[in-house]
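Private note to self, pasted from the team thread so I don't lose it. Backbone tokens:
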């Protein structure tokens, strides 16, 4: 447990709520503000009742364990879920910090202790070091649940890290850093490590039904890594995998945007539209109140994409629930999980209805902080539901239009809270669902997540917001470059190495020994003309073998050395080439212009060319048996002209470009949907800017064969290879100057290509290229920086 003494819980103002599967009738609505003020203590007590070991409804649960619901049948929710618990305690930590309610801290400390235990419990998903943190639920006595379930679920560790990071920040600000370093940080570090290792693997979504890639999961994982890196720095530690993986998660997150809404689950084939409250929940749980812009990249609640998605998801429920019948667009309705839902026949959920309101309260807070609302073509339909006359543009907080829009959004958000109020029993208890036909509460009663969802929505309505997690701040990142390994293939077979020559010589001699001695009587019958002819020929050769090796006795002491003694040259490269040319000449029909000189002997290509003699490294007619690669000399920024370094052609990926092709989920992207992370023809642009347009090339594949990572150190020229590094960056190695303050370095991904015709021409290049060379692998090592060579050498062919 943490060092501060535990305080007894005393919530005299809280109205007790009795857990009961028997639900009360829907309440009559009155003033929304009055109802919410009355419901708030009920909801908080409902949460505390579900936390062991002192909670009224959590008998048998260990201290700090959150039960999902007291319900033990139809359905049985008397378990603890990592996700539900983390979201609940994130709310508790935020409430504790905002209100100063010290009685909540003992529960937070219990939660810290319980999660340390659960992380070490071996379970069907694995152990602490083999993926066990992805286990979705446990028994309330802190033992593993071993029944069949949708596992793994990869959002839990990220959400738990976020909840504990919020508490860790509080401890640090109150002089209790040692508690963070010794107790809280090790738990957080385990979760961050899991996220960094497994984020790009599929898993079940938060509804535990679909295995694939979940928008909610990726969004909360990205937040956890960003916050985790900052926390590590604040306690004098580091999280290099947070820094390296967070940009990749943010990049992948963009793939869920379809152009009009968020497809909440990709890499699945379930026949759904993808319109899912999953995406609204992601938006509110990655809300950053300090955002200085409505950032589409992180899908902040006020962003154009998040608002467009809000409309699409909400509208998908308007026609499928009886209780939503006749309610026009732009007016709040009951909200479920997704339109195709069949669990309990598919009904609205309290927590999703609260979430729909919370996103709008978050957006209002952000607009007021920014001082304006921007209506774009993406979110225009959302705003037109509230004001049919609205047009695209930016409306400052001093304008009448701003007041009109914010008032309409506030009314719209309150509408969702009113829907929930209408179908909440008179005792204030909140179940998981309410009937799509008449609003009767359904499924698990006193659901912890429902209570927590109400409390966060109510807090946002009152402009009580959590701490910033730096979502809108530029994150340290690497500049992505696309490079090309442009090669000229060998034009001659390679000269044999000394070993190859010796082996050929050995095999040749061995083969000839295997046919000796000659069994003459097997081939020539005595007394036949053939036998007599063979004897005559043998006499002519003085009894030696058919090869011109002089007098030879296969049984003498010198028999093995015969070829060496007479200087046989059949193993020499020139002899091999001559024989190949002769054989080729016999099989090739001569061209018409060559018919006049059929007796002219054929000659192979010269192995030593004029370019070889002059050591002309710009020529493609040199080193014919070798693979040559194009290297270019780049001008160093800020240095005297001519002072440069050698590397393969490359260019920074710009705007909508990527490495070479634009594909997402097997479909070509249209231009409006391309993000900075999608791939398109940057490698080809790099090649043209380096070599000019008159080079005929062929890309071997659309995927890189390797990459090179260069970390920028303080005060180093941004492209200077003298400071190259193949390691990933840490916060201490970030650039010091403002222009590079968020650049960790560059990552160059190299694609393989072949030159088919033409030659490089740098006379009018725009890439700052000073010179070029065509070099073989061993020659490249001599001209490039050592760290660069270390990164690229295994991408190159030896011969």
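Design output:
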């Amino acid at each position: 447990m943490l060092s501060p003494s535990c305080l007894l819980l005393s919530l005299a103002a809280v109205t007790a709520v009795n857990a009961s599967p028997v639900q009360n009738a829907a309440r009559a609505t009155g003033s929304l503000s009055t109802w919410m003020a009355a419901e708030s203590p009920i909801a908080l007590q409902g949460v505390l009742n579900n936390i062991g070991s002192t909670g009224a409804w959590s008998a048998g649960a260990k201290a700090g364990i959150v039960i999902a619901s007291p319900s033990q049948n139809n359905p049985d929710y008397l378990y603890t879920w990592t996700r539900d618990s983390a979201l609940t305690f994130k709310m508790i930590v935020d409430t504790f910090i905002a209100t100063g309610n010290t009685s909540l801290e003992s529960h937070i400390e219990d939660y810290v202790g319980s999660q340390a235990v659960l992380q070490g419990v071996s379970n069907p998903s694995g152990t602490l070091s083999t993926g066990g943190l992805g286990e979705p639920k446990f028994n309330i006595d802190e033992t593993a649940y071993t029944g069949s379930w949708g596992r793994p679920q990869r959002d839990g560790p990220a959400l738990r890290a976020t909840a504990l990071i919020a508490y860790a920040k509080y401890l640090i600000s109150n002089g209790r850093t040692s508690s963070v370093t010794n107790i809280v940080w090790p738990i957080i570090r385990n979760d961050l490590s899991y996220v960094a290792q497994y984020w790009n693997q599929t898993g079940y979504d938060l509804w535990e039904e679909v295995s694939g890639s979940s928008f909610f999961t990726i969004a909360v994982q990205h937040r956890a890594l960003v916050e985790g890196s900052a926390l590590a720095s604040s306690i004098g530690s580091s999280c290099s995998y947070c820094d390296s993986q967070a940009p990749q998660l943010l990049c992948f997150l963009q793939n869920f945007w379809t152009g009009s809404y968020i497809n909440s689950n990709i890499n699945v084939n379930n026949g759904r539209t993808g319109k899912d409250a999953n995406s609204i929940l992601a938006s509110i749980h990655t809300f950053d109140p300090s955002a200085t812009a409505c950032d589409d990249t992180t899908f902040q609640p006020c962003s154009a994409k998040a608002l467009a998605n809000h409309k699409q998801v909400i509208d998908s429920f308007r026609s499928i629930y009886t209780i939503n019948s006749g309610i026009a667009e732009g007016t709040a309705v009951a909200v479920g999980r997704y339109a195709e839902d069949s669990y309990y026949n598919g009904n609205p959920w309290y927590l999703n209805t609260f979430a729909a309101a919370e996103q709008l309260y978050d957006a209002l807070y952000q607009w007021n902080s920014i001082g304006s609302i921007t209506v774009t073509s993406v979110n225009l339909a959302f705003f037109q539901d509230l004001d049919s006359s609205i047009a695209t543009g930016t409306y400052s907080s001093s304008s009448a239009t701003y007041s009109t829009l914010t008032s309409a959004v506030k009314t719209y958000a309150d509408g969702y809270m009113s829907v929930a109020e209408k179908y909440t029993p008179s005792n204030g208890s909140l179940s998981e669902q309410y009937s799509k036909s008449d609003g009767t509460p359904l499924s698990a009663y006193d659901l912890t997540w429902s209570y927590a969802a109400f409390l966060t929505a109510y807090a946002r309505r009152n402009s009580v917001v959590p701490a910033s997690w730096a979502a809108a701040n530029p994150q340290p990142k690497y500049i992505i470059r696309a490079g090309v390994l442009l090669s000229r293939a060998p034009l001659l077979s390679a000269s044999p190495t000394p070993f190859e020559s010796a082996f050929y010589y050995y095999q040749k001699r061995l083969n000839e020994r295997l046919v000796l001695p000659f069994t003459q009587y097997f081939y020539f019958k005595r007394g036949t003309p053939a036998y007599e002819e063979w004897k005559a020929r043998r006499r002519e050769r003085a009894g030696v073998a058919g090869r011109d090796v002089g007098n030879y006795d296969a049984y003498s002491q010198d028999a093995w050395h015969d070829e060496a003694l007479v200087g046989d040259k059949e193993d020499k490269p020139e002899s091999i080439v001559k024989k190949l040319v002769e054989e080729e000449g016999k099989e090739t029909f001569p061209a018409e212009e060559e018919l006049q000189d059929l007796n002219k002997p054929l000659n192979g290509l010269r192995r030593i060319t004029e370019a070889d003699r002059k050591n002309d490294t710009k020529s493609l007619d040199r080193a014919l048996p070798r693979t040559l690669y194009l290297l270019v000399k780049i001008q160093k920024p800020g240095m005297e002209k001519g002072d440069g370094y050698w590397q393969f052609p490359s260019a920074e990926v710009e705007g909508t470009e990527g490495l070479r092709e634009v594909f997402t989920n097997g479909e070509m992207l249209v231009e409006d949907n391309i993000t900075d992370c999608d791939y398109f023809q940057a490698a080809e642009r790099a090649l043209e800017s380096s070599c000019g347009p008159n080079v005929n090339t062929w890309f071997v594949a659309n995927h890189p064969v390797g990459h090179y990572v260069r970390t920028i150190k303080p005060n180093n020229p941004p492209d200077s290879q003298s400071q190259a590094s193949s390691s990933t960056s840490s916060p201490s190695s970030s650039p010091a100057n403002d222009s590079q303050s968020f650049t960790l370095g560059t990552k160059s991904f190299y694609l393989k290509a072949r030159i088919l015709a033409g030659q490089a021409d740098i006379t009018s290049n725009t890439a700052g290229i000073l010179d070029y060379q065509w070099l073989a692998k061993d020659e490249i090592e001599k001209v490039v920086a050592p760290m660069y060579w270390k990164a690229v050498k295994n991408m190159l062919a030896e011969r």
